[in-house]
Amino acid sequence: MSAFLNSDFGILVLTLLQSLAIIVPLLIGVAYLTYFERKVLGAMQMRKGPNVVGPFGLWQPFADAIKMLMKETIIPTGSNRGLFLLAPMITFGLAVIAWAVIPVNNHWAVANINVGVLYLFAISSLGVYGIIIAGWASNSKYAFLGAMRSAAQMVSYEVSIGLVIVCVLLCVGSLNLNDIVLAQRHIFFAVPLFPMFIIFFISALAETNRAPFDLPEGESEIVAGFFVEYSAMSFALFFLGEYANMILMSAMTTTLFLGGWLSPIPFAPFTWLPGPLWFLLKLFVCLFVFLWVRATFPRFRYDQLMRLGWKIFLPFSLVWLVVTASVLEVFGWLPHG
Amino acid sequence: MIASIIFYIASGILLLSAAMVVTSRNPVHSVLFLILAFINAAVLFLLAGAEFLAMVLAIVYIGAVAVLFLFVVMMLDVNFAALREGYQRYAPVGALVGFVLFAELALVVMNFVIAPGAAVLRLSPAPGDVTNTVALGELIYTRYILLFQLSGMVLLVAMIGAIVLTHRDRKKSLRPDVARQQARQVADTLTMVRAEFGAGVKLVSPPATPQAEEISQ
User: Fold this and answer.
1) The pLDDT value given to residue B14
2) What total number of domains does chain B contain?
3) Is B143 found in the same domain as B72?
4) Which residues of chain A have pLDDT under 70?
């Protein structure tokens, strides 16, 4: 058995199985995130949310999925057919492949690579392509406006996300996500780097195009933004991609700031709970905040969005980066001295 | 074996997409093929063990530079027929430029001398205990700190230059004054009025400054 596992073919099979072990729960998670969102929004707006299909409306996501599959995929004339179909695949694919490096427990990642954080950052910066390509290939002005908004927005907020990540890396001294979590054994980074944690979370909202930064799909001005022309399965892929991105961003928040699989209180009754469960619990809290924000805040105006990104977050995180570096240097807390 | 299969796939796609960048008719397709070429170059870096460079290539070139490229190309309204028109006329000039560049490159390659110490250095094993990123950092921030900082400065100056060139102070634009918006209180703008039945409310204009309120009373 171990001979087979060490052969080239064995490694391939093992990697495929590992990928399945990540992707299948992720897809189920995405399906139930839509259900969870509708229930939470319903509760916050004093409605019931989905409650008809199955007990407590639990089969609702599957009913929606089947409905999407049955519908006709409409490709507008004058659109660029190949790119039009490629765009949702890119969006969804990128949201899935980023999961390769997320550690769910100590050394439980498909690929425990040295540059894990950079990989995540690279993948999330590629996310904009799905949207731009969709906007351009649709050959529709609303879609194109949505795509332009999204491109400017995502590039802007990536800058502050990058600086926040550098702050975390300074405290860890490694780009490996496993090491980043293990460095939080004594205290979660959300405590000493609290302002960075907040900036990261808000930037994550902007990166995933979620409310209150959902201008790329602002229905009051540009109908549905970049996916106006999409229908049926191609629309469903965009939708899945958006929710998978939400889960991914929550996972990044959990890993970078909330101590990943570690239990928040490091003694007996809490450490009994296995690591993946802690990870899921933290993920769940982050996702709840995503939905809570959506139910609470009105949409930003575009100039307000740009002002927040460039004039507030960027200078603040730059200053905080220098402060972090100075404190670490002065007190001799720099890892690898 | 897997590594060499991936190498041939990635470099094959890299070369093909590089060719497509030049030959495809639609400029947007060209940029997309350029991105594909970047991605495959990143894969080649990974295979060579340069994981940090691979990720930086992905973040900087694919995630930022190419996005702006794509952005600009999509905004242009390119007339493909007009682009094709001058092809016959410009082809000789293009060929000439290509030939000159090729000759220069050939001259450089022919006179290329490998540094005498390089062959020995290649034989020594790469240190296994230092990751890529750490190794790079220890060189860049010690031995090459001056060059590194200088190149950063050049980029900063270029950025400031671009902003100065395009910046116009438009006096007429209706830009919101955020400080004033934040300082505004409810009491400045809003007065609660109890309307008597049948009597209505007498509106005071301009409404609701404290002075106006005093006058109305």
Assistant:
1) 92
2) 2
3) no
4) 1-5, 268, 270, 336-337
Q: How far apart are the CA of A43 and the nearest CA of chain B, in angstroms? A: 30
CA dihedral of residues B60, A118, A87, B46 (deg, nearest 10): 80
A85 vs B206: CA distance, rounded Å: 57
Supply the pTM of this predicted model: 0.81
Domain-embedded: residue B110: no
A contact residues 56-75, partner B, Cβ 8 Å cutoff: none
B137 with B66, same domain: the answer is no
Express each pLDDT in A198-244 by its tens digit: 999 999 988 888 878 887 777 777 777 777 778 878 888 888 888 88
Write out pLDDT tens, residues B65-97. 888 888 888 877 666 666 666 777 788 888 999
- Chain B residue with Cα closest to A155: B64
CA torsion sign for A204, A210, A212, A218 is positive
CATH number, domain of B62, equals: 1.20.120.1200
> Domain range holding B140?
132-168
Place of tokens 């404190």: A327
Domain stop point among B9, B44, B79: B79
A61 CB burial (10 A radius; 0-12, 13-18, 19+):
buried
Asked, for residue B63, whether it belongs to a domain, the answer is: yes
Residue A300 touches partner B, C-beta closer than 8 Å: no
| Beta carbon pairs, A and B, within 8 Å | 68
The mean predicted confidence, pLDDT, of chain B is: 81
Cα(A185)–Cα(B120) distance, rounded to whole angstroms? 44
- Residue B16 falls within a domain, yes or no? yes
**Contacting residues of A for B64, CB less than 8 Å apart:** 125, 155, 158
**pLDDT per residue as tens digits for the range B183-199:** 888 887 887 777 778 77
Q: Is residue B59 part of a domain?
A: yes
Interchain contact A306–B (C-beta under 8 A): no
